[in-house]
Amino acid sequence: MSFDTSSWLAQARALIGPAHVLSADNGDDLTPYTRDWRGKFQGPALAVLRPGSTAEVQALVRLAARTGVALVPQGGNTGLCGASVPMAGGLQAVLQLGRLKRIREIDPENNTATVEAGCILQTLQEQAGAVGRLFPLSLGAEGSCQIGGNIATNAGGVQVLRYGNMRELVLGLEVVLPDGEILDLLRGLRKDNTGYDLKQLFIGAEGTLGIITAATVKLFSAPSAEVVAFAGVASIAQAVRLLGAMRGHLGDRFTAFELISGPAVALVRRYFPETPALLSGDWPWYVLMEAADGGSDETLREAVQAALMACLEDECLEDVTLAGNLAQGQTLWSLRENITHAQQMDGSNIKHDVSLPISRIPAFVEQMLPRLQQAFPGARPIVYGHLGDGNLHFNLSAPEGVEAGTWQAQTEAVNQVLHDVVVAMRGSISAEHGIGQLKRHEMAMYKTPAELALMRRIKQALDPQGLMNPGKVL
Ligand SMILES: Cc1cc2nc3c(=O)[nH]c(=O)nc-3n(C[C@H](O)[C@H](O)[C@H](O)COP(=O)(O)OP(=O)(O)OC[C@H]3O[C@@H](n4cnc5c(N)ncnc54)[C@H](O)[C@@H]3O)c2cc1C
Question: Where do transmembrane segments lie in this chain (predicted)?
């Protein structure tokens, strides 16, 4: 039986209103929803559906299940593994959650917020801040990524060291299951030992098991003092020693520890020439550190200064500067945040997002850099990442003059050189960005048969029709 697109669109329009169903035959440009942030993946969509409530999501999921149309959940479309856009083959519609953006409740006494999936991360940070609370997830895309996307990717960001990643920040979820049933797990409990922790299934599942419509997340007391420092180090081994020493000195006050290679800093300065020189000399590696607490700036600053002095004496760093105020702190952070944008502007690069036990990172980088140079002469490694979490973005920019298509054709070969070593050292090929369509084939190579079989059984149990974000993850 042939599929009647007009009738399907008419049914969708009747459910959520004509203005909220975008389609090509209506003259709508679907490209912003069907092409991913990096411009690497694009697929056809029957429509872009923009529901405004959980009930509307439920109605659309039921329509999709009845008619065999697959749904691709989408938040801010800032994901980096092609998971938020359709793939060729089969009937697919993008389910864009951006209208579902209410903050349903902020409960300062329980230190929780209950928020709809389409709420922009930065909006939640600001609203929590307005009542003296902190929502600590923080990442470069925070002005456009959404809480639902953050949960579906188990996002990490720059404060995992102190607060954990999204999995640790979510207390409850509301999910529309693939058959249209609403799973209400919106409990703001820190202790609940009543059987399987079902919400964990949907965190990091990249929209393959259901549509997240709302979440209850943890808040923390907003820090009243923050100090940011930027240090030059001679090697990654020295950076790892610095991490251990600073943690020892500052304990829980130590909130971020970001490693940035010399070439990454140079790239940012090339594309963002307003970036100031932060230290008097050049170093092969730099570290951006942050400490925060509920006391005064002055007291925290003294504690950080004392810790850094001790680290200098113990030869855990070579040179360091401390931001004098909030604006200077932001300048330091924008250097870190602009790396992704500078790489994007610089042209083609093959991205990696690996994690390893922190103690093994110096050995890993030491062997990877020459190995990659030998295998891919002229390739430019841009290495940076959340060293405090053992997470490195080990990106490889195209050799000068090599055209994007030619370089991207090397992706599998580059990945294999890098990921074979990561897995041999018991690391992960995806610490943050997820699998999507980018690493599906590789995940199948590196996970054990037992892990893969269990993942497939879970998928089959929840989504027997295979209509939730098909072709992603599994
Ligand atoms: C400049 C930049 C910096 C970044 N920095 C970081 C970083 O530091 N740490 C990090 O972890 N990531 C980072 N990312 C990646 C990205 O921002 C995160 O993965 C983010 O969490 C994705 O959110 P999103 O709303 O854009 O989701 P999308 O890209 O729209 O979707 C991502 C995945 O989630 C699914 N999804 C979205 N919404 C829902 C929902 N409501 N229900 C079910 N599934 C859903 C999609 O189907 C897809 O599989 C960065 C990206 C950019 C562009």
Answer: none
